[in-house]
Amino acid sequence: MKRAKIQDIADLLNISRVTVWKVFNNKDGVSEDMKRKVLECAAELNYQPSKLQEVELAIPLKKQTLVSVVVSRPETSAFWVKIIHQLAEEFSNSGIGLMYTYLPAQIPEGYVLPQSLTDGSIQGIIIMNVYDEEMLQLLNGLSIPKVFLDIVTDMSVESLNGDLLLLEGRDSIKEIVTTLIKRGRKHIGFIGDIQYAKTNMERYEGYVSAMYQFGMPIEPNICYTGNMTVKTYVEIIEEFMNNIKQLPDAFVCVNDHAANMLVQYLESHGHQVPGDVAVSGYDDNNEFNYTKNLTTVQVNNSQIGKRLAKQLLYRIDNPEDPFEVTYIRTRVVYRNSTEI
């Protein structure tokens, strides 16, 4: 009788040779049902070199670890895409599957989390770009390992049932403001929603710290710290600027988006940047027209993705260890918008 081969099993089950090979070598990527079919088919064909019962008992079928990145308001922004791509690469290198879970930006009445997050099918989650406190609290209540990339300002770190990664912003913004003051810019304003995210508040704290250190007053009429959304940036900045009677020497913005909207407003109203007003941002996001000229704080997206992945893997392996708060260092990049 002709000896059975891997190809014979693949042909009978209408699957690839690779799938059969994975089963006999205990590799991930094959469903439990298919593994069973391959083993049964091999038994019927008297496939050798090993006894199948010994194969099943000696090499237990391993269920692939699956984790998810959880986000709200999916964007085409390269800033977030780069982080997610790095996450996928890191988990792939570790033989771990990555699932993408989209959540609404605001919770509708009667909302419940997707079943995939609650039925035990995933072993950990990374939460990023979620800035609704109610949604964060729902996620925080899940009894699986989790890592947050930033949280809303009003949510306490002590309440988190998981690890927290933050982008350093207090010292980097303080450095920018300090440099502006030393270069003669005395009246400096701030633009950014400080209740939106903990990192936004820390950037504002860096601005305030530098102003106080040099005895400069915080002037409310040139500071906007209220609510801002992606859809309302232009409208809010325009209304805010229209109500300023005398422009300050500089504006420090919470991110590059706000900074670019501000530069567009200033230039459309006949003001020179940085001649009349210096402007800085945060993120070093090259998707905006003025980015190449903008003084900003550079964020290493690949480093963030790699660190998030490693932190989740650590938390999965060490669920009882104390939760951690980790800051990712950033770097100030000076460009023409501040004439420094």
UniProtKB/TrEMBL annotation:
Molecular-function GO terms, alphabetical: DNA-binding transcription factor activity; transcription cis-regulatory region binding
Domain HTH lacI-type: 4-52
Residue ranges of coiled coil: none
SUPFAM superfamilies in the cross-refs: lambda repressor-like DNA-binding domains (SSF47413), Periplasmic binding protein-like I (SSF53822)
SMART domains: HTH_LACI
Cited CDD domains: HTH_LacI
Keyword set, alphabetical order: DNA-binding, Repressor, Transcription, Transcription regulation
Pfam families xrefs: LacI, Peripla_BP_3
PANTHER family named in the record: HTH-TYPE TRANSCRIPTIONAL REPRESSOR PURR-RELATED (PTHR30146:SF148), LACI-RELATED TRANSCRIPTIONAL REPRESSOR (PTHR30146)
Official protein name in the record: LacI family transcriptional regulator
Species this chain originates from: Anaerocolumna chitinilytica
Native organism taxonomy: Bacteria, Bacillati, Bacillota, Clostridia, Lachnospirales
